[in-house]
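Q: What does the assembled structure look like for these inputs?
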Amino acid sequence: MVPKIITVGGGPVREVRIGGTEPLAFLGGPCAIESRSHARQMAERIGEICDRLDIPWIYKSCYDKDCRSSAASFHGVGMDEGLGILGEIRSDYSLPVVCDFSDAAWAKPTGDVVDMIQVPAYLCRQTHVLKAAGKTGKPVHLKKGQFMSPWNMKNSVRKIEATGNHQILLTDRGTFFGYNMLINDYRNFPIMMENGYPVCFDATHSVQLPTSMGDVSGGQREFIPYLTRAAAGCGINALFMEVHDDPSAALSDANTVLDIKYLEVVLAQSKAMHMLRLELLEKWGEDRVHLDG
Amino acid sequence: MSTSTDKMTVRDILLSPDDIPVMPPRTILKSALEMMSAKRLGLACIVDDTGRLIGIFTDGDLRRMLLRTQKPLSAIFADDIITHARREFTTIAAETPIADALRLLEAREIFDLPVVDDQGKLQGLIHLHPALRALLNT
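A:
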């Protein structure tokens, strides 16, 4: 199935169309908003790379990291300051922005600022959260929980649809494989596409080893290029990666964020694979093999 | 109501939509099976927003699908009923004489037939047993 196209941004910010035969979109930025200057610096540096590669980009960063392994971990700059910074980035760089929220009450103020609202993977079943996301009227970036089957994401999709919102991006960020370990099941993409919405691959969280280091998560970033090329070949419409200029000093997800020095090579290869995939789609048609069972 | 079978039509014995499993196309299979069990019928009627019959799904379709598919049961349960429904099916009009309806059931070796109007909208269902009861009571 060729998924529908969703539109993020537009007006005063760049418009990013995701789905169908649109170019591969990139959702990326530092995991957490660390400071105004860092957020702006990352916007400029990532923007240079995306402009050079001509990749449509949505700036991603969050003001509250509610799923950290430890209560002592950096939790975020908070909603007011964070949304203020995202609003500045949005207006100063004409960039669409995406940010998650962890409490249904935060959805409206977040949706009032961002161009796309994100539902964290751990909360992907929560009815209040999903309905709050849908009611913002903004496109919803819905991550498949690590514990969820791809076919059961339909239930979450329909909770959002019940609000009248039909702009949804479905993302795979890895699936639990025993304790402290994730794997990627690429069957998830065509299965989630059956909902009729575009799909996205979250590369940096897929290589996470959840809470593998006692009170913090580890990660095997060396696999990111392999996983992203494979995902692009599977027909994803967007790629999600958290990026940092100094991962060892990152205040959140230090073991999984991609060092910005590798961003261009990963994005360039992902784009090339995505374009090849579209060429194959045009030449051979959709992947309709043994769909009758 | 007519008093003899030669004057009776399908309308006299049809089960109303309230008494049969009727559902929209995006009903998940698990819910569809529950509705079929609750109504004690082996045929589900899938209708669009206007009430037009767009597909049927039977116990036989379920058996054949289970033998054919390699998907896990949890995934099958989450499928929309329309993905497994038959889009081509036989229907009958409410004005059809009951004897003709029974002959059709017998010829097709089936137990149920959806009843639709000239717009294709679902009017109900004839089921073999109410039809037999009508015959036996006259």
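Chain B has one domain: 10-136.
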